[in-house]
Amino acid sequence: MTEAERAMLAVGLMSGTSLDGVSAALVRIAEPAAGSYALDLLAFLTVPYSDPERDRLGNTITGGSARELALLDADLGAWLAGAALAVLARAGVPASALGFVASHGQTIWHEPQRASLQLGDAAVIAERLGVRVVSDFRSRDVAAGGHGAPLVPRADRLLFARPDGPRALLNLGGIANFTVVPPRGSDAPVVALDTGPGVMVIDECVRRLFPGRRFDEDGAIARTGHAVGDVVEASLAHPFFAAPPPRSTGREVFGVAYAHRLITLCKERGASAADTVATAVAVTARAIGQAAERFIPAQLCPLDIVRSGGGARNPALVRCVEEAWRGPEHRAFDDLFFDGDAKEAAVFAFLGYLTLAGRTGNEPAATGARGPRVLGRITPA
Ligand SMILES: Nc1ncnc2c1ncn2[C@@H]1O[C@H](COP(=O)(O)OP(=O)(O)O)[C@@H](O)[C@H]1O
Ligand SMILES: [Mg+2]
Fold this sequence. Notes:
The chain has helices at residues 51-63, 66-91, 122-129, 139-143, 152-160, 200-209, 220-223, 229-236, 251-254, 256-268, 273-295, 315-324, 333-336, 343-356, 364-367, and strands spanning 8-15, 21-33, 36-48, 100-111, 115-119, 133-135, 167-172, 175-181, 191-197, 304-308, 329-332, 377-379. The protein is an alpha/beta fold and 381 residues long. The strands form 2 sheets. Strands 1, 2, 3, 4, 5, 6 and 12 form a 7-stranded mixed β-sheet that branches. Strands 9-8-7-10-11 form a 5-stranded mixed β-sheet, with helices on both faces. The longest helix has 26 residues, at 66-91. Adenosine-5'-diphosphate is lined by residues 16-18, 20, 173-174, 199, 203, 215-219, 309-311, 313-314, 344.
């Protein structure tokens, strides 16, 4: 048995496009049988960014100098390490018990098939924890002609498939994406793509129209509003929504400018602030429903849809998604596996495990890469 095949403790670190904070998941990864994996979540937390930290991230993403990028790389490394130490402290597990840390870092620039840059210096994490670090998951897939995203589909296939039929896994993060995985054991290709915004546009509308709030807690604002139909249609006319997979996107496309256009169109029609937020919810949900309708072939029609990510905590968004994607049963990831907010961080720990074992981490059908690749970069302890 190689080192990678023993049950192993690991921490997965993720800072998503919503810029809410650093998520850290302590997991145990095991291989009960060859090619079959088990991922258990032992502890999870998110260390929220302070307002100045979030502003610094946003400003560096939109126009940081080389010096600002370099300093952010080092400081993010420290923030990621801090989140790893916090989740270990919560679980009462010493860093020395870890097999490795896997860090996605924070995406600073994502340009499909050209470059996908994540910051959060792995050397700082290795230095603070004394543990080897797997990082930089996306660049190898990009170098192989792919988008470098989405990467979660490999884990969706290996960890969360049903035995008896296809399943959709829907993540409602800053960007929304889904994977449809074939039944467990099948090596048919997955269908996976970014559908467009997840909570990114909703959050931006809330921040702009309700100063002091960062997101629509429990969907309370959207629930009191009504979506403006023609603004929904105008927003869905963006060419991204018509593009077939492989496709991936980010803040570069659905950031402040896209949200502000939606806000302006709503204002011109005399819509209230709550109507505007409800419109952002409708755009998000309709984009998901449209992508499902257009891009999932009949033989992969899922039996259920398992939602996760912070947007799954927004009942207004969840209800709208259920209306936009009819047919399969909608379920919460939490009810089937573990805390859905931890899914991405836990999945990157799993992808780190695949890296260390020398196994494929991408799904070429999802990323468009020329073939399967072992992902990531390893920084020794
Ligand atoms: N109770 C809640 N009510 C509504 N929205 C929520 C709630 N909790 C989290 N969210 C949403 O989830 C987002 C964070 O989701 P997350 O999955 O971490 O995204 P990312 O991976 O892009 O960082 C927040 O910005 C917010 O929009
Ligand atoms: Mg997050």
